[in-house]
User: Which sequence fits this backbone?
């Protein structure tokens, strides 16, 4: 079973024009694949999901489930299952009636319904709650009940619209596991919408990052983390988020070769040299050609080192804040280009207000073109290479 | 000098010297006295109606009139039941049931449509509907008489049901529109993705959630239907089609005013309303709360 979106676009008429919520999304979710749609609020991820469910009609584009075009099919004929942010259990029905409701509308006899609902409830470990009403359940039990309702019939795909956002942190982790357990069990494509990148990274086979109605990139969590395709993904994925400094592009070794051959260069073919704050570093070139002279160099807080000696680092800044994050400390430095975040060991002793020098591991640096925002160079080029979605 | 202290120096200064608990008790007693006066104003006419219906007719005009019937009699009730009252009673029940059914059905479907479907200018429409409720019935009844005569609906119960529904529907529709807005749409969406058609989702999920609103609408339209006078008095000319309100009025049109019979018929008239309201009043509050009135 697969779910396929082709050039899906949804726009709304608003006074004085139209608002594009989803702009030409192409997405393919393979057999029993878990794909997250992640992005800041208002990026169109929920609208995309609602289009797949049939609750919104796309302005243009095509939705295929199992290769069958369902773009104009009513939601109840698509054979999908969906979990809503507000859980959407029917308050006037008991837990078992809730779970069995999709079977009831399919005309399954009461005995069979009861049997199937009980089985689904057992999978979700709520078999002892069948006669209660949703109002009598705790938050986690309600989520499990809603999950049971989606697995009770055999849906072609699972759609989840931020189902965990109303739960507390501990419960979130628990229900997350339940969702993954269900996904492994039913082996159906699952599309999971969330604004929480940690949730997306921990659960998904692939993560589709959206911004402003556009798909910024789709890749595995590791690829997104290690090889971000553009500046948006780089800054959105990872917590604390990536640092950026502005620099100049000095040279791109294979620029001429590329433009003459016309074919796409393979990663690792060339190098690019960038300059920032009187430092010059050379990194591997990516398939994206630099378009402008200004670049942004990104590096994760995890690879930042702080030095007391000003000569040891690339540039200097004032240590503004040190806070504990788990077993390490997060240092915030006011640098020449704004805030720099650094994860430092627990033993780090410099006090707030002192001048520190910042360095980072070049191998973990990424260079983004200031015009296209696509990645044009990075320290590591081995491993998977991701083509930017919006290379314009 | 603060305001409070200047009050303490005034003629009511003694009040502030009382302990707080005493102040509360006195306030409570005063409020209860006020409540009792209001209750007497409301309940005494009802009591007087019932009492009068039980007096012998010659006792009715003795002075001073006794407060309690010393020798209660049902002779007036018997007299009333010998008139067309039973027919009128049946008519009233039929008409009220028809109006309640029609109003509740139309208001529920219409309110759902206004709340859920994408209709251009539906908000403006829904608000303008309320304006229809502002028309006094007498304003509607003359044009209605002309229409209904053309349609042959004069002196017919379906005719009066239709006509009276015109007065109950606007407010009911507005109430149901408000009510459906409080029912989360995701419940129906979840039912639809789960395999039910839109109508099935409406019946299985939205309707049960809207029940308090429907009951409020039923009570409201019943109250209007049961006590309707103006429109029936114009559309119903044949006494066999009369409703009770018209029948009651007819008792005074005779040469003498038959107080005993009027009161007996009134008592019979009021009883169903009393029970209807008594059992359903908690729902009407729920319904109005949802409508944010």
Assistant:
């Amino acid at each position: 079973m697969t779910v396929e979106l082709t050039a899906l676009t949804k726009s709304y008429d608003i006074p004085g024009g139209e608002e594009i919520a989803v702009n030409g999304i192409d997405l393919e979710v393979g057999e029993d694949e878990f794909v997250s749609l992640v992005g800041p609020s208002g990026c169109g991820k929920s609208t995309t999901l609602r289009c797949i469910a049939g609750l919104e009609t796309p302005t243009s584009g095509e939705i295929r489930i199992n290769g069958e075009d369902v773009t104009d099919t009513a939601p109840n004929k698509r054979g999908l299952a969906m979990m809503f942010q507000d859980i959407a259990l029917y308050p006037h029905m008991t837990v078992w009636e809730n779970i069995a409701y999709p079977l009831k509308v399919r005309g399954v006899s009461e005995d069979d319904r009861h049997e199937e609902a009980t089985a689904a409830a057992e999978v979700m470990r709520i078999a002892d709650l069948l006669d209660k009403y949703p109002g009598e359940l705790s938050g986690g039990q309600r989520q499990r009940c809603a999950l049971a309702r989606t697995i009770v019939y055999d849906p072609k795909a699972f759609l989840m619209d931020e189902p965990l956002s109303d739960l507390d942190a501990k419960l979130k982790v628990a229900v997350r596991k339940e969702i993954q357990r269900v996904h492994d069990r039913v082996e159906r494509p699952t599309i999971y919408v969330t604004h929480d990148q940690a949730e997306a990274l921990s659960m998904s086979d692939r993560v589709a990052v959206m911004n402003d109605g556009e798909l910024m990139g789709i890749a595995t969590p590791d690829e997104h983390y290690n090889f971000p395709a553009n500046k948006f993904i780089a800054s959105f994925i990872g917590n604390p988020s990536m640092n950026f400094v502005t620099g100049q592009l000095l040279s791109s070794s294979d620029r001429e070769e590329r433009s003459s051959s016309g074919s796409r260069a393979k990663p690792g073919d060339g190098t690019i040299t960038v300059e920032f704050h009187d430092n010059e570093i050379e990194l591997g070139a990516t398939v994206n050609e630099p378009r402008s002279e200004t670049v942004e160099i990104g590096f994760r807080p995890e690879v930042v080192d702080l030095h007391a000696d000003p000569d040891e680092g690339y540039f200097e800044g004032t240590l503004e804040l040190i806070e504990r994050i788990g077993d390490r400390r997060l240092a915030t430095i006011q640098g020449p280009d704004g805030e720099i975040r650094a994860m430092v060991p627990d033993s780090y002793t410099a006090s707030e207000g002192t001048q520190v020098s910042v360095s980072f591991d070049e191998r973990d640096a990424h260079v983004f073109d200031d015009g296209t925002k696509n990645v044009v160079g990075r320290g590591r080029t081995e491993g998977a290479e991701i083509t930017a979605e919006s290379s314009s | 000098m603060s305001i409070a202290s200047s009050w303490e120096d005034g003629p009511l200064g003694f009040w502030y010297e009382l302990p707080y608990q005493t102040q509360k008790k006195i306030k409570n007693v005063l409020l209860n006295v006020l409540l009792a006066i209001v209750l007497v104003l409301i309940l005494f006419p009802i009591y007087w109606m019932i009492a009068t219906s039980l007096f012998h007719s010659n006792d009715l005009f003795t002075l001073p009139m006794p407060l309690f019937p010393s020798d209660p009699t049902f002779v007036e009730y018997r007299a009333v039941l010998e008139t067309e009252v039973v027919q009128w009673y049946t008519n009233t029940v039929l008409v009220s049931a028809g109006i309640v059914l029609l109003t509740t059905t139309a208001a529920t479907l219409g309110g759902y449509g206004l709340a859920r479907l994408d209709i251009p200018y539906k908000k403006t429409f829904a608000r303008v509907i309320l304006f229809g409720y502002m028309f006094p019935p007498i304003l509607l009844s003359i044009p209605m008489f002309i229409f209904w005569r053309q349609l042959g609906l004069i002196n017919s119960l379906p005719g009066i049901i239709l006509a009276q529904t015109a007065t109950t529907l606007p407010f009911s529709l507005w109430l149901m529109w408000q009510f459906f807005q409080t029912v989360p749409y995701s419940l129906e969406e979840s039912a639809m993705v789960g395999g039910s058609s839109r109508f099935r989702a409406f019946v299985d999920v939205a309707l049960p959630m809207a029940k308090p609103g429907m009951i409020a609408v039923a009570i409201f339209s019943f109250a209007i239907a049961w006590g309707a006078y103006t429109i029936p008095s114009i559309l119903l000319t044949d006494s066999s089609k009369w409703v009770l309100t018209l029948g009651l009025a007819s008792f005074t049109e005779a040469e003498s005013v038959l107080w005993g019979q009027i009161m007996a018929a009134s008592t019979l008239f009021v009883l169903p309303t009393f029970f209807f309201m008594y059992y359903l009043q908690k729902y009407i509050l729920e319904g109005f709360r949802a409508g944010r009135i």
In short: The longest strand of chain A covers residues 17-29. Residues 169-186 of chain A form the longest helix (18 residues). Chain A touches chain B through 25 residues (CB under 8 Å). Residues 149 and 191 of chain A are 17 Å apart (CA to CA).
